[in-house]
Write a sequence for this structure.
């Protein structure tokens, strides 16, 4: 199997993106401009924004809510101009050691920068269930909607 130069460029662009995200710090959000296109779209369970300034604002807010926020990419795949990342986001102890697992679907532009970014993660299981009353309600709903377990065959 041969790998085209375009595929190698996409893989290299994804590795640059991963390096920026894993090294992202609140005082260096300007690094995002090196991996996101000027009018990139960013979507997660709480936000849908367009443009690098808006994306920087989302991450600034994330750092404010989750001190010491760090991303660790656990797996990655590239297929043409699309990339998938499996990641874990962690906060420091002041945020009760919050940890969130998720996936990102990225579309890479011709220059290798991200033009579209959609995050997939479950806020109900990973956030809401940590809130005392809301957590009880979410766990109850989850149990009620879950398929019954069948006996082993």
């Amino acid at each position: 199997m041969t790998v085209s130069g375009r595929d190698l460029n996409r893989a290299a662009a994804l590795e640059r993106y991963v390096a920026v995200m894993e090294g992202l710090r609140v005082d260096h959000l300007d690094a995002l401009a090196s991996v996101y296109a000027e009018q990139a779209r960013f979507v997660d369970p709480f936000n849908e924004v367009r443009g690098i300034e808006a994306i920087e604002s989302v991450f600034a807010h994330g750092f404010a809510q989750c001190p010491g926020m760090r991303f660790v990419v656990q797996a990655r795949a590239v297929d043409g101009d699309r990339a998938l990342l499996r990641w874990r986001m962690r906060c420091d102890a002041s945020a009760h050691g919050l940890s969130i697992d998720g996936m990102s679907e990225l579309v890479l532009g011709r220059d290798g920068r991200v033009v579209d970014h959609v995050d997939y993660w479950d806020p109900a299981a990973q956030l809401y269930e940590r809130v005392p009353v809301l957590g009880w309600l979410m766990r109850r709903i989850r149990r009620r909607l879950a398929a019954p377990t069948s006996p082993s065959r």
